[in-house]
Every structure is written in C-alpha cells, then in structure tokens.
Amino acid sequence: MQRTPHSPQTSGGPRIRYHEDCCDRSARIDRGGELGAVLNWIRACGWAIVLLTAAILACASEVHTNPLNYDPLVREAYEHFYNLDYPGAVERFERFHSAHPGDPQGTAQLLDAVLFQELYRLDLLDTTFYANDGFLTGRHATEEDPKTRDRILGLADEAIQEANWRLDRNSNDIDALYARAWARSLKCTYLAMVERSFGAGFRLAMKAKDDDVRVLQLDPDYVDAKLVVGVYEYVVGALPWPFKLLIGFAGITGSKPRGLEMLTDAGNRGVIASIEARTTMALFLRREARYKEAILVVRSLKKQYPRDYLFCLEEANLRKDAGEGMAAVSAYQEIIANSARPGYFAEARLELAYFGLGDAQRGQRHFVEAAQAYEQAAWTKNVGPELKIRSLLAAGECHDTNGERQLAVRDYQMAIDAGPNTTRADTARRRLRIPYRGA
Predict the structure, then answer these.
(1) What pLDDT is recorded for position 240?
(2) Paired strand residues for 64
C-alpha cells in the first residue's frame, strides 16, 4: 500500500511536504568522534537544545505513513481515545475494522483501544507504579478479566497473521511490517503489565523491534517506527553495566541518548505514535529525576488534549516529584474538583488523584490529611487491587508516623486482606510487628 506524507506535529491535518536544505550540514556529520562531541554538547546545553535540534532535523524530509491513518473515522476515534473515552474509541475502531477486513492496520488500531481501556480499568496507567524498578521485582495483585484477555490476545494474533499473509507475498511491505511490529508490541505490553510474563514479553519486544528496524531500513521517513526502536534503545541502554556487558555478547545493545533522540523525532513528527512517544519520554525523564524537562513534555500533551485526565494527573505527579510541595497538593485538588464537574473528563479514575494527593501531603509531613487521601483512594469505587493495597499500606504508615497505632494496624490488616500474596502485604506484616517510624 502506498504511504502518505505527513506534516510534523499534526494529527490528520494537511499533508505538507518539507524539503529544506537547512539540515544538510547536520546530515553529513561524521558518525565517529564528531558525533560524540555533538552529543556531549547537547547534554551540556540541556533539553531545550535537543528539542530545537529535533525541530531542525524535521525539516530534512517528509514523513510517510499508512494512508488508512488519515481516514476520518480513524481520526475521530483517536480524538475519543486521547480524551480517555475508550468506549467511544473502541466503537469507532470496531466499525473501521469491519470495513477493512484482513487489513492488519485496522486490527492493530482496535487492539490498541481495547488494550488501553483494560489497562485504565486496572489502574495500570498510573505512572507512579513504574517510576522505579519495584514493579519489575515485586509480587502484585491484578484482577485479570478472562474475556478481555482472550479478546486482546485474539486481536493481536489476528493482526500478526494478517501481516504475515501480506509479507509472505511481499517481504518489503512496509505497512504490514509496521502493523506486525505494533501488534507484537501491544501484546508484549499486556503480557508484561497484566500477566507479568516478562520473558515472553521480552521475546515479543525483540521481534517488534526487529520489524520496525526493518521498516526504517526500507523507509527512514516512516517515523512512527521510531517509537518501538527508541524504547528498546533506551531500556537496553539503561541496564546496569554488568548485565549490559553480558547481553552484549548476544548482540543486544542500546543507547539511552539515541533512544531519547528517536522518541523525540517520533514525538515531533509521528502520525499515530506522537502522543505515545512523548508520554514515554516523560516517563523516562521522570525515572532519571529530570522533572522539569518531563513537565515540559507533559504540558505539550495537555495543550493538545486538555481534558485528558491522565495528562493532567501526570503534571501533578511530576510537580510533586520535583519538590513543588503545596503547589502539587493544589494541582491534585484542582483535578479532583474538575472531576466533579459534569462532562469535564470522559472518565476520571479518582483513586489515582487521591493517591497522588496523599503522596504530596505526606511529603509535606501533613500525615493526618495524607492518611485520609490514601484511604479515600483505597475505597474509591472500582479501584484496582494493586493500588488499593498500596494506598492502605501508605495510610497505615502515615498513621504510625503520627502516633495513631490503632488506625495503622487497621490499615495494615486491610492491605494484607486485599492481597495476601503480594510484596506489599509482606511489608504490612512487618509493620504489624514493628511500628513504622519513617525512613
């Protein structure tokens, strides 16, 4: 299928061809020592220079994409998707999928919406859960819905099979390669985040990366493919040196700066990967404690989708982590107040805002208010089991710190009851034996 040019930083807008020679000099930079010097200069000058450089490089060529991404029904579905109206997005992608039988792109788009609707239901889009490595090593509580699981895995397999059928006939079918990579990465996301099958997820991630590397070899201007490859580069590049050295013998290598560079380009010029690329950048910057840079990225997302509950929440999370104290508390309170306004957010998972509010108040040593916010999170209707346990454990610790032992014991016991086989339940049992006194 013929690919279509796309103009930078737009979603379904005019397809404008950019042919400037302003970047010819950058394109000829030697890949050896001069590149290292350029990267050092970029790091020294800060993230603003990175964004400026990416914007200049965007002038070099047009962007290609599957023309189906410009279909009016697809653009309408994405508007619902990024305002967290997942039922509205799913319904529209289902119609598009039915109208394009056998096309892996339409199947992958429907898979994307169904998957993220389920992750949101499970409170697994809470970035505080992924801001450190505890989510990789701990035992967590997740209530997997069997019917939704079957649908997600079924759609993933359907998209992969549809792409394989086309690739059997033309191994250089770029749109089919991209759709297969996308479906594999989405299946990987479900296996890793919900089922915590990291081994199976890693194998799928490698295959998705290989597909998108092939896409970029065939067409360097198919910018959406830089999302998966950029994530791979960053994650592998962020591994501890001993492990990185070990896997290097297997040919697995990565670079954090290169990963962020690719994500920046996908964020600036991507057609359907722009939002995901910038969201991922913000998460990676947050893990590196580069909060102010992450806030700038999230504010660009909020400007585009001001009624996206998660973007509003993420700015408050970052302001809290950046040490803005009571300003962060006010940001969470504003989100909660806006959630009470009819129609302001399509769907607000209030437990996420209450948990963040508890963290912010705890950071200010307002332990009574923090415990109340955590308990409000724990008892919000339809709260996910993992967040409920986290909230009750945190509430108990606030009560203990404030000398309210009886209330602390109550919350610890409820945390254990909510997830007896989890890592946080083990922590709660220790708190029952020895009162928490702060760290």
Answers:
(1) 65
(2) 5
